[in-house]
Every structure is written in C-alpha cells, then in structure tokens.
Structure prediction request, 370 residues.
Amino acid sequence: MSRSGEFCPRCGDPIERSGSLPSPGGPDSGLCDECYLAAYDLVDAPDRVEVCVCRQCGAIQRGNRWVDVGAEDYTDVAIEEVTEALGVHVDATGVSWQVAPEQVDETTVRMHCTFSGVLRGTPVTEEVTVPVKIGRGTCDRCGRVAGGAYAAVVQVRARDRRPVETERRRAEAIARDLVADLEADGDRDAFVSEVTEREEGLDIKLSTTKLGQRVARGIVRELGGTVSESETLVTEDGDGNEVYRVTYAVRLPPYRPGEVIDPDDGDGPVLVESVRDTLRGTRVRSGEAYRAPLGDDAPDARRLGFREDAQQTTLVAVEDEHAVQVLDPETYEATTVARPQYLDPDATEVPVLKSRAGLHVLPADGEESG
Prediction:
C-alpha cells in the first residue's frame, strides 16, 4: 500500500491505495475505503415486497402486466420477486447470494438473504431480511375466461350426417392443443372459452379470431371437409372502432374413414380410408384403389356399414383368382364371394361385412391399397 497524498474529506485520515487497483470513480471516489464501505451497501434491498398472484393460474402482476412465472408455490414467487427488486452496487464484483425463506403464514414469506462480494478490493458480506406479502387477485385472462369472453366460434358440423363422438372429441383436442402451444410460447390471450355439445355438432368458443381461424383450419387439415367464415358486429370499443365476432363453419365430409359405401357405379362398395382433400379408399370386390372428389362433387353413395361392424369368419376355399368361399357369419353356410387382391389365400379366417349389398371380404389391418 502507498499513500496517495490525499486525505479523506469525511474522516480526515490519509488515503492509502493499492497500486494494483484503479482509483474508483463517482462523486465519492475521494473517500477512504473505510468511509466508502460504511456509506454504501453491497446491495440495495427493499424494506418490503408486495406481490399480487392470480388465484386461478398463478400469474403475477408486474405493473400493468400479468406474467406467467412457472412457480411451484408462493416461496418460489417470493424468491423471484425479491431477486427482481434487488439492486447491486455498480462497483461490486463476484456477487453471490443465498436465501433462506421462512413461511410466516399463508400469505407472508420472510426472505433471509446473505450476500457476498468484493467492493474496492475488500470482501464484503451483508445480511438482509425482506418480508414478502402475497396478495391474491384475478388476472385479465382469467377474468375474461370467467366472464365467458370470446371473439370466435368454430362450429363443427358434417354434410348429410352428424359428427360422431370420435370426431367431436378430436376437434376439441385440436383446439386445446393449439391453445397449449400458444400458452407455452407466452401468449396469454389464447384460451378456449366454452365447448358446447349440440345435436348437430360441436361449438367451440375461442378468445381471438386468429385462434379461431387456426383451430378451424387444423380440424379440416386432420379430419377433412371445408371451412367458411362470417362476421357479426357485436359492439364498438372505447375508440369507436367496430368489434366483430367471427364464426368459422367447419363442414366435415359426408363419409369418414372406416365406412363402407356403395357409389353405385357398378364396381362395387368402397372401404373409405381417407377424406383429406379427396375421398380415397379400396374397392372391396377387387381390391383396387378408389378416388373421388369431396365437397359438392362428392359421390352420393349408399352407406353400408363400418369396418368395426365386420366379423371374423372362416375362409373355406379359394375357388379361383376371382372368387372364394367363406362361411356366412349369420347362417354359417358356405357362400361364394368376390376375391379382392388384398386377400391372403393362406389365411384361415378373414373379416367380412354383411349388408344389403351382400357379403364382402374387408382388408385386414394394414392391407388397404394406400
């Protein structure tokens, strides 16, 4: 250490500086180390921290915003908020801290914090206690959810039929999965407001028109069909701008995968395999691939049954490349039926569907034409 020839303006003692350390800056740089360390704290901690936590989703209020913090409990919230509120001396280096939370009661956590660091080349340790008061409220998002607010409705219907339970549940799952993805990305405006079961289908109320559009397109992309939209003026905002509610009408195709239909074109029934963009399936007489348009150009076919209606029965004999004999699952009589390409001649049992169009061998799992 060497004398600088300077004297501390506060205590009057001569100032000694280490040759390896630069002279500190700032308005109080002329103070000696002892006065400087006495005048300044390593950290600036608030006397008290108040936190408002949403009682529904656990988000916390920061200013005019609600923020998802992903806290497991109020102790995690208290640690997060005290960390945000701390101020560290600008000249301090190597600062670290430990915290020992004390749960005083249901809404109060006392944070016992120990800080260490280096200030003017001197190791410094400080201990502070910060009480954190937890208040409960309702965030904007949860308030809108509770109030049933929505800006879009996705109506799930089907052409010439009613959506089945699996289609209804999948449509709802698509909506909730999209909301979950947006929430994971920090979007607090995305939510499902209400799901209503109707005789003719499903109504899904959503928080934003953009979300409604994404859900409608996602349903059509997976389940097939078409979507149209219409707007309804509902109110004006505080600036006099018109506010619209948008309805996205999803119409699922008239047929669904696993259904057996007869297009009545002379080539026999078809096992429907896909209704995305086009109707795709397999002829159950020949095993050949079938394609047809959807929408207004979809074939007006007879409905014969579903794959789950098929029964396993005995393959009695292979007559030739066009015909086989199977046991009728109801009368147990040997019946000659068409032999489709997908039939395995070495099989002992095959799935058959009996309908008003006759008896037909269906593909086993994985044997469709693709």
Observations:
- The chain is about 15% helix and 45% strand.
- The mean pLDDT is 84.
- Residues 259-361 form one domain.
